[in-house]
Request: fold
Amino acid sequence: MKQWLIIRSSWSPISFHIDRRVPAILGGLILATLVAMVLSVGQGEYRVPPLDVIKTILGLETNNSDFVFIVMALRLPRTLVAWGVGVGLAIAGTITQGITRNPLASPDIIGVSDGASLAAVALIVLYPELPTALIPLAAFGGALTVAVLIYLLAWKGSSSSVRLILVGVGFSLIASALTNLMVTFGNIYNVSQALVWLAGSIYGRSWEQLNVFAPWLIGFGILSLLMSRELNALQLGDEVARSLGSRLELQRGLLLLSTVALSGSAVATAGNLRFVGLMAPHLGRQMVGPSHEGLLPVAALTGGFTVVVADLLGRLLFAPIELPCGIITAIVGAPYFLYLLIRDRNS
Amino acid sequence: MINDTFASYALTTRKLTLAYEGKVVIDSLDLAIPTGKITVLVGPNGCGKSTLLKGLGRLLKPKHGVVYLGCDSIAKLSTKAIAKRLGLLPQGPTAPEGLTVRDLVAQGRYPHQGWLQQWSKEDEKQVNWALSITQMQEFAHCALDNLSGGQRQRAWIAMTLAQDTDILLLDEPTTYLDLAHQMEVLDLLYDLNQEQSRTIVMVLHDLNQACRYGDYLVALKDGIVYKQGYPNQVMTETMVQDVFGLESQIVSDPVAGTPLCIPIGRKISIKAPIR
Reply:
């Protein structure tokens, strides 16, 4: 029984088991994330010492009254957005890899994120007068369209994982081409807005964006966590899952919806941050194995931590020039994707 | 074997027609699987054995006809209710990288669990039992991808056993195993049948193993039952010729007394006899 931690109550039917490494790793990740967040909030043109960051967030008095505005209004929402986007993308990636049983899949690779980008850019460029709260909805629609097309063209009745990736990459290219077209012909002011956002940047994100994004993240994040058991069954293959009594179509549909909603809303908030959805589940599996009760939260926190650190690095490396954190994740993520491809070919 | 009382039959089909993408594989089949016995499906590649097994296990929706689980039409039961009564192990299942044997076997408890109750004492008991009866306890912490083919197959069987169903359907449980491991798996299934009177339906390629371990044999050809019954009724030279297109001699298995099929093939020159 050393492999698992068992939680069971004597007076109720409640009982769980989880990989015993999970609590310590979750604790470590939370701690690392908090440290990275405090450093990130303190970093900038106007430095705030870490202790003062903590004090300000907790609402305690500091000896500089400017800190409240800098921390609470400017930097904290940005860092929280970074974290939330990372968490959302990581959950979406974990689910995608689970239901497709394909370690190379993630929303940004199979074009779901690009579908979201295209729809969002279309909204920004063509209908700039519409409220920003509609961007997540548009992104969701774009992501859903691509997901449904991939499902119909590359997934249904086929178990080839390479085919799924190739068709997905095809969609990804088509969507980016259309996005470029939109950018080329759009009104210059609207386009410049779209471009900053497209690079995968969380520059200037405020409470407003966070408030729009949070309900999507919380709602579909919880739905995903509640479906860990179903994901475990699904990753054994359609036939085994069905033999075990899984309502395959319904459960896969719900999980796919979660993926689309999480990646769509994350893209709507911070643009197309590549490779977080691919890498976080792999790192999570290395830490706690492939059972989703433990993997989903661990991958989610890994994703959140990654984006917070990427954002911090983007501001530190060439200060005062700021690199969009999407560039940082891509620089680390693309070689990792190649490594996975090569390893997959050899096995 | 068709009888109007369902009680002695674990699974019954009535005019069952199964099709893959419009192509009929099993045509209007009437079959009854006796309770508490081992039934073996034999037939050449592509005759519809696996398809039939999937049909019996509701993995494939019938084009026409009905499958009865006991007295209940399988189409009217919830998939979870079926999963508590019938376990099915498809051919060559794959597990995600890094999944341990215990994780896999625990998945067998899925139909017995809910959102709040995910690891009851009963779950634990059944998983431990399945691990011990398949002799996989010492590998419980190992990742499946680090095991040999035989161990992996035993782990999958353990998962199906942990499901705790009276009926087990297995599609070629001995494929990819060497002879010793094949016998090990078949002995395990035989013990389960003898000691717990579980109904077992399996597809086997080896006719001699089918005769030795099967109480009943169903020989399929082109989607219809060519012959069914006791091994000594089904396993005849005519059947092997008609179903497999193979010339053979049937002798008595010197170990078990069951029919033993010796294929003749083209190489009939007799080598020096063994002294």
